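Forgive a beginner's question, but would it be possible to get any protein sequence you like and the tokens describing how it folds?
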Amino acid sequence: MKNTLIIISTIALFLSFSGYAQEQKTRNRYGMPLYEKKDGSYKVSKPMMEILGDDIPDDLLVPCKIGPAIPAKFTTEAETIEVVYKSYPDHDLKLFIHKSAITKKPTPVMFFIHGGGWYGGRPESMLPQAKYVAQNSGMAGVSIQYSLCGQKGIDIAAAVQDCRDAVQFIRDHAAEYNIDPGRMGFSGSSAGGHLAAVLAMTEPEAKVLVGWVGAYMPDRMLEYWPGADKHNLREYFYNGDQEKLAPYLPVKLVPTDRQIPCILFFGSGDNVVLQDQPRTFAAALEEAGQTVQLEYYPYYTHGFARFSDKNAEVWKKSVRFIKTYIFKK
């Protein structure tokens, strides 16, 4: 029974973070949905109670008014340039490019990669982040669309190659968009955090990685995540074959000949991407001599970077970290 409840909760949490569930739910400060009872009080789902066990915060059932992580006034002046960078027989892939509004000199570029379990999600969900850095932080912001599991002929190798082709497009058009191709940063949430980590570990111009609840060990998720079966991700990830997956596992790609400072956000209430993923990735980074900053949030759920009272704090910490490293030559 407990395993069933955890599976149900996992699906609900993942869908809420990926943008499929309605965002206007009543939530507590940790990003957990609250359900109103007949007497006007609240409860959390039984699966969530199972996950929490005996470690329950005092304010679990207190509704929290959650504003946007990035207020609109910080993004309204950034122009979006929408371009097709790659075409398949059955679908096109786009980049959403935002040039810096601060300086006329060539600027660093920050890439943003959306989550959605490798089978869903939209690049538009990362536009506030891309617009913010362009309008306020002296760099270009680019949101990447990539092929998804379920599209014809797509596996993890194809999705990663899409992201690499997006980066190459920016290299090839750097002058057009006033970008310094020698200073790149990568960031992403959940599945997008995994793709961002692969690129950051392997693209030579990478200067920084920001991961929000990143799924850095997708092979590990095949062991417990119901979405692996529901969305045919086992085949997408070669049924966990370590030899075939090696080029797509960030923990096996950490370089020792250059620095890529990393900041990784995660919460103890996340049962989609379990805590062993960011901790194992961080250990691999530290062993290779990389700078890594772990940002741990007790009780916070998989979508806390978006749906909790810490969303603005997470974004401010992210921007501060990016600016510390991406401008370095």
